[in-house]
Design goal:
By secondary structure, the chain is an alpha/beta fold. The protein folds into 2 domains: 3-176 and 368-382, Glycogen Phosphorylase B (Rossmann fold, 3-Layer(aba) Sandwich), CATH 3.40.50.2000; 188-364, Glycogen Phosphorylase B (Rossmann fold, 3-Layer(aba) Sandwich), CATH 3.40.50. It contains 14 helices and 13 strands. The chain has helices spanning 13-28, 44-55, 72-87, 97-105, 130-142, 153-161, 188-198, 219-231, 249-261, 278-282, 298-305, 339-351, 359-364, 369-382; strands at residues 3-8, 32-37, 60-62, 91-95, 113-117, 147-150, 169-172, 205-210, 239-244, 268-269, 286-289, 310-313, 331-334. The strands form 2 sheets. A 7-stranded parallel beta sheet has the order 3-2-1-4-5-6-7, sandwiched between helices. Strand 5 (113-117), helix 5 and strand 6 form a beta-alpha-beta unit. The longest helix is centred in the first third of the chain and has 16 residues, at 13-28.
């Protein structure tokens, strides 16, 4: 019987949604699953997932580690090693750079196969400095330990070209989304009710964005782009920006001050995060991501499943949505870290917002969570 240990540092946002979907699929497939996680960055559904793993006969361990390198990681590694020695899984799969490092540093027997999904390398954003150098060196040193599952061609290309992991074993399996959960509104009354809950009036035109307040997501460029779009586009008095994302207090304060400086505060809706993020998309008319880099973002896939147009930075991991093979007809790109360019992309969408979008039907052919998880499980079982 296949026995899988899933290791994840984030307990919130896109990485966690990937882990959550994968674990549910494995449990439903009758696979024995253990779960090593961290409660440091956690959302309300993490505890529920831990409970589900235990209810199915698996075990879990809280490594209590953070995303940044720390001396505490040594303790986490020692505890994880003891857990593996006791549980003896066939496969260990680490998600995110921290979990991936812990998994690949384990001194384990050859019969235990190791996998790593980066969910975007830190260096993909072109960021320089000590932190980027440290992360890149770690990835280079551990790159040949086990097999890497990349989410997009850009992520794979970065590993080969920048990290020079040309001999490392890797495969591309895109993220998958639950199309039964992420969907458009089924009625006008449903849309009106969701909008009312979020403080959106019926006539508002809503550009939405979901992402934590971080360097990677670059919310400052999003706000500057929205302000530029409003100043330079006619008939935008009723256009609102629905921005969902948590962050450190310092980042929240800075973003609030930026909105005031740009004079767009009254046009921005900042609701608290919910355990049912699918409702946010049903309130939107278009979805925007200004990220500096991504693996293949869940939020973009969830927007496609909700049949929304996409307004994107042309950064690694977001370029994939423009691939001709997918045929998405309303994907508008602006240059990364360039507010005016992304504002122009907003303007292109605004002028073409009457065009019918068929993103959901097309995305379902390529990004089904069942297909993605089945590919991962087959990888576990056949290698």
């Amino acid at each position: 019987m296949t026995h899988i240990l899933i290791v994840s540092e984030p307990g919130i946002d896109g990485v966690f949604r990937h882990v959550e979907g994968l674990i549910h699929y494995l449990l439903e497939s009758g696979v024995k699953v253990d779960f090593a996680y961290s409660s440091t960055r956690a959302g309300p559904t993490l505890i529920e997932l831990v409970h589900n793993v235990k209810a199915a006969g698996g075990e879990s361990i809280d490594l209590a580690t953070s995303n940044a390198p720390s001396i505490k990681d040594l303790r986490a590694l020692i505890r994880l090693r003891a857990f593996v020695q006791r549980r003896q899984p066939n496969v260990i799969h680490g998600h995110s750079s921290k979990a991936g490092a812990l998994v690949r540093l384990l001194p384990i027997q050859k019969h235990i196969r190791r996998y790593y999904t980066p969910h975007a390398y830190y260096g993909m954003g072109g960021n320089k400095g000590l932190k980027a150098s440290v992360f890149n060196v770690i990835e280079q040193l551990l790159g040949n330990c086990g097999r890497t599952i990349h989410l997009s061609p850009e992520e794979s290309d970065f590993a080969k070209s920048t990290l020079r992991l040309t001999k490392a074993e890797s495969i591309i399996i895109p993220n998958g989304v639950d199309f039964s959960l992420f969907r458009p509104c089924t009625s006008t009354s449903e849309r009106l009710q969701i909008r009312q809950e979020l403080g959106i009036v019926p006539d508002d035109i809503v550009i939405g964005s979901i992402g934590r307040l971080s360097y990677q997501k670059d919310p400052g460029t999003l706000y500057r782009a929205f302000a530029h779009f409003r100043r330079n586009t006619k008939n935008t008095d009723n256009v609102k920006l629905l921005h969902v994302g948590n962050g450190e207090v310092k980042d929240t304060v800075e973003l609030t001050e930026l909105a005031e400086q740009l004079e767009i505060t009254e046009h921005i809706i900042r609701p608290p995060y919910r355990t049912d993020p699918e409702v946010f998309y049903r309130a939107m008319d278009a979805f925007c991501l200004s990220s500096r880099y991504e693996g293949l973002p869940y939020t973009g896939l969830e927007a496609l499943a909700s049949n929304l147009p996409l307004i994107l930075a042309d950064s690694p991991g977001l370029k994939s949505f423009g691939n001709i093979q997918y045929g998405f007809n309303q994907v508008y790109y602006g240059k990364t870290e360039c507010p005016q360019s992304i504002a122009n992309a907003m303007q292109q969408w605004f002028k073409a917002k009457h065009i019918t979008t068929e993103h959901r039907a097309l995305a379902e052919q390529h990004f089904s969570i069942q297909v993605a998880c089945r590919q991962i499980l087959e990888l576990y079982q056949t290698e």
